[in-house]
Amino acid sequence: MMRLMNVALIFVMAGTSAAIAQQRPANSTSTVPRFDLSLGYSNIRANAPPGGCDCFDMNGGYASVDFHLKDWLSIAGEFTGGHANNISMLGQNLTLLTFMAGSKISYTGHRLVPYGQVLFGGAHGSDSYFPTNTSSTSSASSWALSTGGGLDLNINRRFAIRALEMQYLRTALPNGTNDAQNHLMIGAGIVIKFGGSHEAPPAPLLAQQQNELSFTCTTNVANIDQGQTLEIIGNTMTEPDRLDVNYSWSSNGGTIEGSGRRVTINTTGMSPGDYRVTGHASLVSSPSTTAECEAAFRVHQHVESTQTSAALSQADNAENEKVFHENVQDALFDYDSYQIRSDAQVAIDHAAQYLKEHPEINVMIGGYSDERGSAEYNLALGEKRADAARKALIADGVAADRLQIISYGKEAQVCTAEN
């Protein structure tokens, strides 16, 4: 019997290898349904009561039902039946029925679909002789265990041929000796597919991962007076994430100062008008992977009023600074958030009223974060916080061209407590 089991395992392995070698991409014949129903013929090389030898064949059939949990995993149920005449010198017959259920794994998504399964349930024998230590009966029942696999050939999305199924079957019907039987079942049949079907995932393609880069840039203000410094902020996203990026900048007006993702333009001597700054980003690991961004800004002619000069005179500067910070206070944020809190809104409302009463004052709003997280992430978070405060001041009536923003990220911190 062990020799037959080894031969069966060799056949199953060979069939699985052939199926994988001949796999095809997923198409209309390789969809995975919700249910499978299979009917077919089976032959059992039986080792059944009353003897312990593998000495006769049983012919019969099987019916199985699969419920697909995933493309590759199913719950399987199977019923088999077989009959043989004159199985020993006593002249008795044997009818053997099994009913089992278990799990099934399939290599779906191809025309040839190998599978393996492990089933457990019960067995019932009848029309035979089942001796025990004290008596004998013509029928008996026991547990049954089956393990094996097979190969299906998909014809279309509703039908397939079960080209081969081989299983090892273990039963424990009384036989007067060890009450154990080992069987080899071989079968073939048809498969009918029911229920809504979905495409199995296609076989994976081995390909080199492609680098991707996206690049956007913004200015801290859209309008600026002559002589003031304009800040340009670039933001990149890479695929895969966290790749190193080189930056370069150009403008049709002014002088670019600095390098990296944040640079400035000195507008001294620039004529009033509309200008544009262009950023260029490329991956350090793949210089051919590039992206560009553009941001527009407008330069206004600077007019210095007598009131402004008086307000910012050296003598009054310290006092003005003190009064300013008494009325324009910090707006604090929750951890990893740029949503305006209720206490921050109170501070912003008071600051807006003060700024409307002092139209000569222009404000630079700084955004900060704590030290947790990467420098790149915290620069972006600080920028979002500063922009949120700017928008809240604008909503309270402060002119947009009086407000600029800058992000310090975690390089300069307002609060160092991590709570």
UniProtKB/TrEMBL annotation:
Q: Which GO terms describe its cellular component?
A: cell outer membrane; pore complex
Q: What's one GO BP annotation on this UniProt entry?
A: monoatomic ion transport
Keyword Transport applies:
yes
Highest taxon listed in the record's lineage: Bacteria
Q: Identify the CDD domains for this entry.
A: OmpA_C-like
Check the UniProt entry and state the signal peptide residues, or none. 1-21
Q: Where is the OmpA-like domain?
A: 320-419
Q: Keywords in UniProt for this one?
A: Cell outer membrane, Ion transport, Membrane, Porin, Signal, Transmembrane, Transmembrane beta strand, Transport
The record ties this protein, via InterPro entries, to:
Bact_OuterMem_StrucFunc, Beta-barrel_OMP, OMP/PagP_B-barrel, OMP_bac, OmpA-like, OmpA-like_sf
Which one of the record's GO molecular function terms can you name? porin activity
Q: How does it sit in the membrane?
A: Multi-pass membrane protein
The protein's matches in Pfam families, at most eight in alphabetical order, are given as:
OMP_b-brl, OmpA
PROSITE patterns per the UniProt record, alphabetical: OMPA_2
Compartment annotation = Cell outer membrane
Record keywords: Transferase included? no
Know the name of this protein?
Answer: OmpA-like domain-containing protein
